[in-house]
Amino acid sequence: MLLIRCPYCEEERPELEFRNAGEAHIARPTDIAAISDDDFEKFFFIRANPKGIIYERWRHVHGCARFFNAVRDTVSDKFVMTYKAGEPKPSKLPGVSK
Amino acid sequence: MKKYSVFAIAREAMRGHKGWEEQWPSPEPKKSYDVIIVGAGGHGLATAYYLAKEHGITNVGVIEKGWLGGGNTGRNTTIIRSNYLYDESAGIYDHAVKLWDGLSQDLNYNVMYSARGVMMLAHNVHDIQVLKRHVHANRLNGIDNEWLTPEEAKAYCPPLNISRNARYPVVGAALQRRGGTARHDAVAWGYARGAAARGVDIIQNCEVTGIRRDTSGAVTGVETSKGFIGARKVGVVAAGHSSVIMQMADVRMPLESYPLQALVSEPVKPVFPCVVMSNTVHAYISQSDKGELVIGAGTDQYVSYSQTGGLHILTHTLDAICEMFPMFTRMKMLRSWGGIVDVTPDRSPILAKTPVKGLYVNCGWGTGGFKATPGSGHVFAHTIARDEPHAINAPFTIERFRSGRLIDEAAAAAVAH
């Protein structure tokens, strides 16, 4: 089971308190009816599914109930960092060489 | 290839079993092949086998990062069924079940297919409605599936607890008698032996690191840890790593990879005659011919390539098993493991041509690909050989996520993931 640091509660809590909410930093189109089928596919279905560093959303459902973002290595399942929703995608990651 | 038979056993017994030949050689890769298959799991090896057997394409290389059958083929719970809801799914999964029946004879290799029946339990009114809908849909598609009362279910599977006082009482069940199990390793080995005998090279411990394309964008071969290998046609059958391989050809996939776990108990005498699944309490269980109870757990909730998962996922499914079968509460679990499954948004596979000329993909089998192995390989070989899909896999395109023509089988999964 993962230990996840909620950036709002500012403490590590067991995974059972959280719900994964998929890939982060996917912007919902402002006028979804106007976009092309290609763009809708990219937004709705296509996923990075990286082997390595992933940016993903979590929700602390059994805690503060708020969404936040996390950076995690999908090979080791270790978290690099978590940060609040709305904050920009971190360009430099602590402890990651590439 | 020397044929396996009772006479071969007798002959070898007479001379100290010195004459058995290796089941497949381990060749160095050629400079080029007509077709390269990336991934030597069951689906990849079946594809190579049917390319050689049905389409006469024997200059085929199957390239495998690890050892053959070492991914999800060797990690699944070996259950076979075709009681899917939609016509498209019923078509492909029942194509597989028809091939399972007779596969041992076809391969001259005992895959131990045992049609012991797959029983899905209903615990409430909603389950009854869903399962009866499946029974009717299946029968319209010519697939056997029948409704059982709790007493009939108990008669078919005596260990079942049908007490009205159970926490989740059994109020009925759907039974597919042609469903069952097979020996997963033997499936990979049988296809590997059959393919190698027809001239297919199986290259293990060779990782694909890139897909090379010419100026028109067409595939010309793959970069590997053993150097460049040329081919005008490349079929990607890489399960959980499909996104990673397809990215090498700049194709982004509608896939996410999750860990899926299973576990087995200590081996005991035959106590459990069929496969039982319950979606509501999230449990499914069967007994292998070796005697172990084989139990499937759920997926973790996050993307991962770790081939391991959370312990709470296993204990959750064991809670359900113990509730339904109190006699198993004191069984010791021997081993648990995880595999990485590639899941599509509509929970149906992709077996198709891709936007890249010469590149084909067979992926997205999610949590239930083993049962489809023969059918998947059969129609994927057709797709590669003819450069057009077989009628059975024609709906399973990669474009359906743009057109919206989804095959939304999510509700038909044996257990919710």
TrEMBL record, chain A:
Protein name, per record: Sarcosine oxidase subunit delta
InterPro entries: SoxD, SoxD_sf
Top-rank lineage group of the source organism: Bacteria
Automatic annotation (TrEMBL), chain B:
Main enzyme class: oxidoreductase
UniProt EC number: 1.5.3.24
UniProt xrefs under InterPro entries: FAD-dep_OxRdtase (IPR006076), FAD/NAD-bd_sf (IPR036188), Rhodanese-like_dom (IPR001763), SoxB (IPR006278)
Gene3D superfamilies named among the record's database cross-references: D-Amino Acid Oxidase, subunit A, domain 2 (3.30.9.10), FAD/NAD(P)-binding domain (3.50.50.60)
UniProt keywords, alphabetically: Cytoplasm, FAD, Flavoprotein, FMN, Nucleotide-binding, Oxidoreductase
Cellular location(s): Cytoplasm
Cofactors, names only: FMN; FAD
Domain of life according to the entry: Bacteria
Catalytic activity: sarcosine + (6S)-5,6,7,8-tetrahydrofolate + O2 = (6R)-5,10-methylene-5,6,7,8-tetrahydrofolate + glycine + H2O2; sarcosine + O2 + H2O = formaldehyde + glycine + H2O2
Rhodanese domain ranges (all copies): 35-79
Family under the similarity heading: Belongs to the SoxB family.
PANTHER family listed in its UniProt record: FAD-DEPENDENT OXIDOREDUCTASE DOMAIN-CONTAINING PROTEIN 1, SARCOSINE DEHYDROGENASE-RELATED
Protein name from the UniProt record: Sarcosine oxidase subunit beta
Source organism of this protein record: Mesorhizobium retamae
